[in-house]
Structures are given as C-alpha cells and as structure tokens.
C-alpha cells in the first residue's frame, strides 16, 4: 500500500546510475470492492503531518489446514528485469492444535557498553517472558557476550521450572552492560551446543545493537558450518537495535540460517518486537521447505535463496524471476514436527490486476542489498538501484525526494489592468533517509548509545538537492536541468530513460557551478 501526501509528487534519485523517476501517489483506504480473493480500498484526505505509527493490516484465515498458492505475472515493457515473475505464499491455517517442534534454543545477547540502560533492560524483560513460555520438553541456554562470553550453563538444559528460575537469576547477575563487541565466538559456541539436536528444532536467537569489522568473515564461517551440519541445521533469528548495527549483516545471517530478521530502530519498540520475533521462532510447524519444479526452470532466481520455515505466527512468502513456463500445479514439501514429509498441492494463478513486481519489490531489494553488501558486488548495487527507481521502493542506493507545488499570487501591474497572475513554483524537499545504512563500527567501538548520532545525507543526494532546489524551483525552473528532467515525464519511456540520464548527468557536470552560486547563496555570502 502506498501512502503519500496531498499535492506532493515523490521521485527516486539513483545514487548509482544518476537516474530520476517521478511517482505520483495518493492516500487511499476505503473499501471499494469485496469478492473472493480480492479486496479493494480507498481513502481520500489531506496529510497534514506524517505519522510515526506503523500501518497495521490484520486478517483471519478461514482454513484450518496449511494452504497456499502460486501467482505469476509477465513483466511490463519498462521493467528492468524481463524475466517472468512468480510469488509463492503459504498460510499456516488456524488449527493451533497441530503439533509443533520440540525446541533447542540458544539465546545470544549483546551486553556491550552501548546496550546500557533501556536497550538491555527491555531485551531482558522480553527474554524473561519468552523463557516462561517454553515447554518442559524444550531445552535452552543463554550466552551473553561483549569482548568475552558468559553462559548460563555448559550445555542445554531442559526448560523445567527450576532451570528457568535459575536462568532468570543468572540474567539478573550477568546482564551488566560493558566492554566491546565480539559476535563470532558466541555464535560458534551456540552451533556447538546445538550439534546434537536429533528430533528437535535447533534455534539461535541473536540480539545486538552493534557492528563489527569481521562481519563478512562471520557470514562465511557460519555458512560453512551450517552446510556441514545435520538434516535440520540450526535456524538463526537475528534482532538489531538502533541504527549502529549492520542490519544487512544480520539479515544475511538470518537468510543463511533459514531464519528471520527483525529490528527496532526506535527504542520504544525493542521489547514488543523481540517478543514477536521470538514467538515466530518458537512456533515453527513446517521446516526444510522445498518447492518442486523451480529447479527445472531456466535462469531462475528465488528470494530468499534459503527458504525459511513456516510458523503459526506469520505466513511464508517466496518470490522470484524465471524464464520459461510454469506448470499448472506445484508441490511444496517440508518436514512436520514428527519428521514425516508433508506435501501441499498448489494451483497456479495469474495475477491480472495486481502489480506483482511492486508487491515483491521491498523484500527483494532488502535481500539483494544484503547480498550486494556481502559480495561487494557493484553490479548488484546497480541492479538494486534500477529496481528501486522502477518500483518506487526506497533502497540504500536511491533517495526519495518530495516535490511540493506552491502557488504565488503576484500583485497586478498597471499594464495588466488589475489582473492578478498566479505563478506555480516547485519546492523540493529531501526527507531524512528512509534506509538504515550498513552499520557504524566506530560508534560500536566507542559504545555510543543507539540513536545518539544523526544520520548524514549521502554526498550525491546533497549535491542533487543543492542543484535542484530554491532557484531551480523558480528562476531556473525554465532553463536548467530540472526543466529537462520534468520534460522527461511527458515522453515515451525509452526516450525518457535516455533524456533523464543525459540531463541529470549534465546537471552534475555543467549546472552545479551555476546552481552553487544561485541556489546555495555563494554570491550572497553563503558557504
């Protein structure tokens, strides 16, 4: 769902390819149609102030059994990827009586100096509640780490009342913030503890607020260890606090471990979101999921590449691209809690009225960005930027810019015989980054509290804003790069792409000097 402001146009500026794409959006949320498999909503109204509250959409599932479907769609002519699009979704059903897996859980918690105060207190409260929800047949251990590691026990303990009471007491004594951050050692210890989890689902639940220098090495080590493990390798669920940790590193860890990643950028939501992620991790009903037929397709790409488990707490969605033709029916297989093979037959549906590429865009961009970060692949970065510009989903390599139209009424002159003239200007606003960045190792090593440092604008975004705001919104609106960029929105897509790249490049190369004098105030004593 796209929620934007009245009388404002939003566009994405690619920091990689210097391409500008304009998007017009409207606030919509009123039911327009309701029929089997399709709901339509609309809402009209002015957006005076942006809300910090998340948009929540909830629904109930009528089926008691696990079910799902496969949706496919052909790409549009201007899509940057001309492969066919598909999306597979699985719903867990509402039958809570289905037997879940016995769980072997190792909780790994960062207690470095930056976790002091509310982050660690809320993490502690969330984990205390999670421990009380474990069943006696489950097993657990807690590892706290900073520069060193501390364990609640030398091995996994059954989740009896006595063991949980002892762990709660241990948390109260050992969860004291201080020291630096070393993530690899506690992760290796957790994998060692879970090496003999026959008949149980092994889970690593990691909570951290910091970034470390050896993150790519950690991913390589963990991937090799999990690849050589048992039939059901340890699942890794990661939770990041604040903006200093590298959320793409944590997302990559979760993808390698077939788990999930979540975060709280606002400290007010730490406890609640940890509880929700832990609930998903501890309510798995189907694991080692595979989708037959995908391997038979040409040039297939699946997001995520390691399919996570299906949980009672949330649906499972997998998307991707391929060449060829999909069969009319699919088989999805996985292991149930009793280790028997569970098979689901799903039918292919054609997404006629759904912009499937936009529905899947945000998750695919996040996963591709994590892969681009890990591999340091510039081609992947360029691919993400193009996807972002095409779909309107913000990425680390693009910036959202708001163009707001303003009408200025000029006083009538004698020659105009009393007539007033309205002049429409374009005000350009660059909001704070909607992205999270790739962590801050310096802030982590200095044990800075999450949120104590304001994010800086990317250099390319600052240059772009200086070159196209103020003067370009009025005087230069008819003669500089902005006019050409606006013109591009009225021509055919092929010509628009060429002209947009050409004139945005000219803006950076030839117009910056003029814009620096006129827009940035250098001629009037500006800096």
Regions with pLDDT < 50 over 5+ consecutive residues? 1-11, 17-28, 460-491, 502-527
Count every helix, treating DSSP H or I runs of 4 or more residues as helices. Answer: 12
Backbone CA Rg: 26 Å
Largest sheet: 8 strands, mixed
- Strands in their spatial order, largest beta sheet: 15-17-6-5-19-18-14-16
Strand content: 25-35%
Q: Report the average pLDDT across residues.
A: 78
Task: Give me the secondary-structure category.
Answer: alpha+beta
Helix content: 25-40%
Q: Outline, from the CA principal axes?
A: globular
Q: What gap, in angstroms, lies between the N and C termini?
A: 41 Å
Counted beta strands: 21
Characterization of the model:
With 527 residues, this protein is α+β, with helices and mostly antiparallel strands. The protein contains 12 helices and 21 strands. It has helices spanning 118-132, 161-174, 184-193, 215-227, 247-256, 270-281, 356-375, 378-391, 441-445, 459-468, 481-488, 493-518, and strands at residues 8-14, 20-24, 33-35, 38-40, 67-73, 84-91, 103-110, 139-145, 149-151, 157-158, 201-208, 235-241, 261-264, 284-291, 298-303, 310-311, 316-323, 329-335, 341-350, 398-410, 421-429. α3 packs parallel to α4 (215-227) and α4 (215-227) runs parallel beside α5. Residues 1-11, 17-28, 460-491 and 502-527 have low confidence and may be disordered.
